[in-house]
Prior knowledge:
- There is one protein chain.
- This protein has six helices and no strands.
- It has two domains: 1-36; 38-118.
- Helix content is 81%, strand content 0%.
Amino acid sequence: MNNTAIVWMIVTLVWIVSLYKIVGIHKIINVLTMFKTKAYWNPLYNRIEAISWISKIGIIVPGLVWGKEIWYLHIVTLISSSLLIWVKAEKGLPTLIVFNTIWIGISSWVLVKNILLHL
């Protein structure tokens, strides 16, 4: 493991622990335990949101850590971001509508670059 990775892990750990203490560790735990309840996963939009975040993590982390792009995951993020705009309109969260609109543009760019321009 190189020095950058070690420093990154320390900074991330200190930041998250500090943040959780400020917010309240019990509040964080109570919110996170919602993942274990069936009721949380019953609304379709919560499942779409989970798929969307997992696929975005699958794109971002390999790019940041190893400099590798898993470009075909942008197919999933294009679809899930489109669905999340519907979800966020239902929940009334404008910042996430804007975020997912931007992500649609990013995914479209990567897919055009990797699929359409290689035909």
